[in-house]
Amino acid sequence: MALALWWGSLSAIAGFVVPMLFAHLPTPAMAGNLAGRLFGAQTWVSLACGGLVLLVMRSNADNPSVRWSFSAIGLVAISMLAALLVEFGVAPRILAREDLKLWHTVGSALYALQWLCTGLLLWRAARQPQA
């Protein structure tokens, strides 16, 4: 469930909510400000979901029917790191209006990396037999 919430929230924010903000708010500055807040909130959702996924992986470590590999743990770690980098590395530079095109591109790439990693984790988890 945590994986589905994580991937679904990433998808909803980037795929629907933020484009709707830019389409319906009076100015791009207002939309960008609100989008930044939503992406910040998404960071904390990502960290909470990632932490929960790691806890579930650990609690199921002795169950032979649930096969979480080191690569799955790595995907969770990469996704959580990407979220932290966007929040604390990229977002401050965007707010400071430093080289906006570069930092929007870096932020988008990190967000896409997080989305791909969590999607792959969700797909792998859905393929595992249930105990």
Characterise the protein shown here.
Helix content is 83%, strand content 0%. The protein has 131 residues and is mainly alpha-helical. It has one domain (2-127). It is elongated, with a radius of gyration of 16 Å. 21% of the residues are buried.
Task: Name some characteristics of this structure.
131 residues; mainly alpha; 4 helices; elongated
What is the fold's blueprint, element by element?
Elements: H1 2-24, H2 28-59, H3 70-95, H4 100-127
Helix pairs in contact: 1-2, 1-4, 2-3, 3-4
How many domains?
1
Low-confidence stretches: none
Beta-strand percent range: under 5%
Globular, elongated, flat, extended or rod-shaped: what is the shape? Answer: elongated
Helix content: over 70%
Task: Please sum up the structure shown.
With about 130 residues, the protein is mainly α. The chain has 4 helices and no strands.
